[in-house]
Amino acid sequence: MPVTEVTTDPEALTMTLIADFAAPVERLWQAFSDPRELERFWGPPGWPVTFTEFDPIAGGRARYHMTSPRGEKSRGSWEFLSIDEPAGFEVLDGFVDENGDVDEDMPPAMRMSFAFEPTATGSRLRNVTHFPSADSLDAMVAMGAVEGSTMALNQLDRVLLGLREYAQGKGTQVELIDDTHVRITRFIEGSRDLIWRAHHDSDLMRRWLLGPDGWSMTTCDVATEVGGTYRYWWEQDGVEGSGFGFEGELLLSAPPRRAVTTERMIGMAGPGTLNDLNLEEEDGATLLTLLVEYPDVETRDAILATGMADGMETSYARLESVLATDGALR
């Protein structure tokens, strides 16, 4: 992982994050100075960021919000204090409300510096946050600033490398983020619009979302709007009583980028999962990322032990085959 160190200093009132990347300083600068690239990594998993304003000059401002899987928004603002391209920049980072005014219910603004330094293998990011008080430092740490910053910056590798180099040919990858979160990624040849359609068009879903050979999707009721429900059911061909299925609710929909649903196996008691689907396109191909939130570590391990990832890889490989052979989908 790129992040090698995160330390807090109660006396200096700082939090320092160090991360190393196999890319030159100029490429690192580009990732931080382009809001569209920032959106691909700045928010931690489950809280992707959207920049609605971005003026990277001394005295300029940026406004952004992060959106949770359930649709809650955390809003912030940067005031650019200094720019030293490509060596770094400094901002005043603070919480704001929906009108862009200071959010008095949140910790006060923090001065944050980003320094990009060349190394023998690429570049190093040194990110230092200066807090106005010990209480502010403690509050941000309690809110998960260390964990959130680490998870966010660990996503920058795939932006710097490019999606093809980062994920092509690796199949379905499963990453344990913590006790209750798993990130699943799969690189798929095809536009984001097309991959979105493949997850929301019932006729197309029946052609690829099947798992191992010999199964058919007999029910595919898709949720079409937030608050709606879905129901999927599969049967093993020629085997009576072999069916199983899933159902849930659509919590968030932002076509063609993101969809969040609950999921529960039909007929099973107990809590289900929260599934956060994100699609990221580059050069006509798409990186699919599925962040799954489990109720506890035992449920996580039990579901992973079923061979879920292998079944997903079979389905995604089938999807690639459908896209490659059906000219009408291009």
From TrEMBL:
Superkingdom as given in the UniProt entry: Bacteria
Cross-referenced InterPro entries: ASHA1/2-like_C, START-like_dom_sf
Domain spans labelled Activator of Hsp90 ATPase homologue 1/2-like C-terminal: 23-160, 191-323
Family, similarity comment: Belongs to the AHA1 family.
Name of this protein: SRPBCC domain-containing protein
Organism: Microbacterium pullorum
